[in-house]
Amino acid sequence: MVVLSDPEAVRHLFYRKSALFADRPNDEQWIRATDNEMMAMMPHGPIWKAMRKISAQTLSPKYLDGALAKVQEAEYAKSKQRMTKL
Questions:
Q1: Which end of the chain has a smaller Cβ tally under 10 Å, C or N?
Q2: Is the full-model pTM beyond 0.85?
Q3: Is the pLDDT of residue 34 over 90?
């Protein structure tokens, strides 16, 4: 365990050396249960970076408002239709 009492040292570690603390604990049961495909528990590495990039691009407001707008509108209309039948 490391204890830091200087706020500047803490800031330096969290913002400048964040890669040292960003990795997840290696849990063999979790890896077997998810086949190591759940991004939230993946260890940092090239696969995690690729998945994060794809997620960020897919969930960006520009993409959601552009390419997926028609899908969202159709889902909203269908949900609204179902709710009015209740």
A1: N
A2: no
A3: no
Number of domains in the chain: 1
Name the band, by pLDDT with cuts 50, 70 and 90, for residue 1. low
Q: Please check whether residue 55 lies inside any domain of the structure.
A: yes
Establish if 25 belongs to a structural domain: yes
How far apart are alpha carbons 14 and 61 in whole angstroms? 28
- Separation of alpha carbons 49 and 55, rounded Å: 10
Distance, CA of 44 to CA of 7 (rounded, Å) = 26
Is 13 part of a structural domain of the chain? Answer: yes
- Residue type at 61? P
